[in-house]
Amino acid sequence: MDKIEIKFKDGMVRVFPKGTLAKDILSAFLKAEQGDEIVALKIGGVLVDLQAPLGQGGELEAVNWSSAEGIEIMRHSTAHVMAQAVQNLFPNAKITIGPAIKDGFYYDFDCERGFTPEDFPAIEAKMTEIISQNLPITRKEVSRKEAQQLFQDRGEHYKVELIGEISDGQVTLYQQGEFVDLCRGPHLRSTGQIKAFKLTSVAGAYWHGDARNKMLQRIYGTAFPSAEALANYLQRLEEARRRDHRKLGRELDLFSISDEAGGGLVIYHPKGATMRLLLEDFEKREHLKRGYQLVIGPQILKTDLWKRSGHYENYREKMYFTEVEGQSYGIKPMNCLSHMLIYKSKIRSYRDLPLRYFELGTVHRHEKSGELHGLLRVRGFTQDDAHILCTPAQLNGEIKGIINFVQDVMAVFDFPYELEISTRPEQGTIGTEEDWERATLALKAALEESSLPYQVNKGEGAFYGPKIDVKLKDALEREWQCATIQCDFAMPERFDLTYIGQDGEKHRPVMVHRVILGAMERFIGVLIEHYAGAFPTWLAPTQVLLLTVTDPQIPYAEQVYQKLLTAGIRVLKDIRNEKLGLKIREAELQKVPYMLVLGPKEVQHNLISPRAHSGKILKAMSVEDFIHLIKDECKVGGEK
Ligand SMILES: [Zn+2]
Ligand SMILES: [Zn+2]
Questions:
Q1: 123-156: buried (b, 16+ CB within 10 Å) or exposed (e) per residue?
Q2: How much distance in Å is there from the Cα of 515 to the middle of ligand 2?
Q3: Which site among 174, 268, 287, 565 is 20 to 30 Å from 484 CA-CA?
Q4: β-strand pairing of 46-49 with 13-17
Q5: Active-site residue, selected from the candidate residues 365, 424, 444, 573
Q6: 336 included as an active-site residue
Q7: Would you list the DSSP string of 336-369?
Q8: Closest ligand by atom to 332 CA
Q9: Cα 428 to ligand 2 centre (Å)
Q10: Angle formed by the axes of helices 395-412 and 270-289, to 10°?
Q11: What is the pLDDT of residues 411-426, one digit of tens each?
């Protein structure tokens, strides 16, 4: 009989017959009361359901139900319970897929009747009933054919289709009560192990995330190990809803995405465009200061060039193509190519290096309709993209320079952040071992010399080189990927980029691709939510709003307005003959940093009394002093 070796935490190794159930290994070695808190095992790093027979040995780790992986298993089981409840209440609903996701789970249904949040109480009540019955969740391995027959008989044609896409001979089914699902697991042992859950929202979702397929209905929910943890999460969710950039984008009139123009294509309204241009100005200043040169490339480039760069081979699915006079062109999904053509336009000497080309480059990528999300996931966006070409010896200094840049920029927006280094993948990479070693060391050394902690993602690098990713944390502690710094050995090779070294010979430069904010669209989306729409003065599309109390103040208001405008302050006026209370309320909703209410007193003393959006009322001051105050607040980055 085949044996497997299980290594326990204390170093002891025990031999079991192959096919021993995970739960039997567990019960042999753990006290019963501890066993209750364990929802799965990890053997050799692979999650295993307690009911699964073990095919392979390895180091054993118990997955506690309150660990991150345990919570994920519980959420997945809750998704199944929700599907069971939905089918119980709406027998015509067909099940498709229902995974655990970050912060919760969802299940997609095909159902004639559209679900709304009004259905949630009934579904939740049914779920509570299923949970209180404490139904055992059983796992069964069957042949594909058997599974297909089972779902065919139950009228679940989406499941039949999914089984058709699986290549294994055997599949696993999970069952609780009358509900059966095709699923890899692992799952809880019984429905009673679910402690606290809540359904959160409903949305349309295409089958397989493709707009050509049928629109399904996705119900989102979440589950936590305790009622308290759930309550905390729901409160954060409520705050996130209040800050949702799509909602605020509409209320503050910043941007729109219209079905007429196409999904994922952002239309900036005057205020949004102002913000975008302010950010771009900031970026240009900061780049010029750090020795970058501004460049601009075309929007479309010949397909042959994309073939040479490897994009056609590796990235074609995400690209759009067009034709001009019988010649095929690719719309750029990245900005690298023109930058390399600029480099190649001359013979370069080691004395010219490093060269740092910066472009606010607009790119287009095909993202699936189902994955588009406001400004955070779009099809057309502008990156603050730069490519640095340098000698291998300069790499360390260049990386440090970029890290420094990231630190400065994150400080401007008050974002804490974390760094990750991704190293060489096991296979499918280009470049020599030596190249990888050198570049990875350069990345690590730069972070260490800057005394920055980082995490290593082994084998997660790009095929062309290792990278550093920067994840910022917003006001709600959510993580967003922004800056990335990638070393590349492929492009200089493919485009035969060279420089003449000190020895008079040709050498290959190293190429670094990097963004600081990433995509402007996405960054603006994150900013809207981070600031809840109340932008700092330097970034606010409107900085000052003038309000008159009654008509006699209009001439004075016009005077103040002109002075502010001439000083370059972004100011609007509200001189309507409306109640002051209403004008103030409307102004509050626009979250403008300063409101100037001009009444008879202000006119008489030729002063203004600014009130900040925070509610703070400043002492009365002259228009000139106020202009100074605003200008001081607008000094960001190196201007301070
Ligand atoms: Zn499942
Ligand atoms: Zn690039």
A1: bbebbeebbeeebebebeeeebeebbebbeeeeb
A2: 9
A3: 268
A4: unpaired
A5: 365
A6: yes
A7: HHHHHHHHHTS--BGGG--EEEEEEEEEE----G
A8: 2
A9: 19
A10: 140
A11: 999 888 999 999 988 8
- Each residue's pLDDT tens digit, 241-292: 999 999 999 999 999 999 899 999 999 999 999 999 999 999 999 999 999 9
Cα separation, 144 vs 165, whole angstroms: 10
- Give me the residue label for tokens 């996931």: 377
Joined together, the tokens standing for residue 220 give 């989102």
**10 has catalytic annotation:** no
Burial track 520-559 (b if 16+ CB lie within 10 A, e otherwise):
bbbbbbbbbbbbbbebbbbbbbbbbbbbbbeeebeebbee
Q: Distance between CA atoms of 544 and 531, rounded to whole angstroms?
A: 17
Q: How far is CA 215 from CA 87, 199, 505, in A?
A: 18, 20, 61
Ligand nearest, relative to CA of residue 389: 2
How confident is the model at residue 33, as a pLDDT?
47
Q: Which listed residue (348, 379, 467, 522) is catalytic?
A: 467
> Environment class of residue 605 by beta-carbon count within 10 Å: exposed (0-12), middle (13-18) or buried (19+)?
exposed
Candidates 379, 513, 530, 583; catalytic one? 513
Q: Which of 23, 379, 387, 438 is catalytic?
A: 387
**544: Cα separation from own chain's centroid:** 33
CA distances from 496 to 213, 343, 353, 490, 506 (A): 44, 11, 16, 10, 10
What is the CB neighbour count within 10 angstroms for residue 476? Answer: 13
**Contact predicate 540/613, CB 8 Å:** no
Verify whether residue 387 is a known catalytic residue: yes
- Shortest-distance ligand to the CA of residue 464: 2
Give the Å distances, CA to CA, from 557 to 6, 104, 600: 81, 53, 11
How many angstroms separate the alpha carbon of residue 79 from the centre of ligand 1?
Answer: 7
Q: Where does residue 87 rank: exposed (0-12), middle (13-18), buried (19+ CB within 10 A)?
A: buried
Structure tokens at 242: 């209040």
Stretch among 24-33, 238-247, 304-313 having the lowest mean pLDDT: 24-33
Tokens of 602: 């202000």
**Residue in 29, 19, 18, 17 with CA at minimum distance from that of residue 60:** 29
Distance from C-alpha of 28 to C-alpha of 57, rounded to nearest angstrom? 16
Ligand nearest to the CA of 182: 1
Q: How far is the CA of 159 from the centre of ligand 2 (A)?
A: 41
Among the options 51, 193, 383, 553, which is catalytic?
A: 383
Active site residue 605: no
Selecting among 49, 108, 181, 385, the annotated active-site residue is 385
Whether 366 is catalytic is no
What would the pLDDT profile of 517-564 be if each residue is shown by its tens digit? 999 999 999 999 999 999 999 999 999 999 999 999 999 999 999 999
Ligand number nearest to the C-alpha of 180: 1
pTM of the model: 0.77
For 170, the 3-state DSSP assignment is: strand
* CA 286 / ligand 2 centre spacing (Å): 19
Question: Which pair of tokens denotes residue 637?
Answer: 């980055």
Name the token pair of 581.
């209370």
Structure-block tokens of residue 232: 């905390």
Alpha-carbon distances, residue 121 vs 76, 365, 400, 550, 583 (angstroms): 20, 40, 54, 51, 40
Query: Exposed, middle or buried, 424 (CB in 10 Å: 0-12/13-18/19+)?
Result: buried
Q: What per-residue confidence (pLDDT) applies to 624?
A: 95
How far is ligand 2, taken at its centre, from the CA of residue 267, in Å? 25
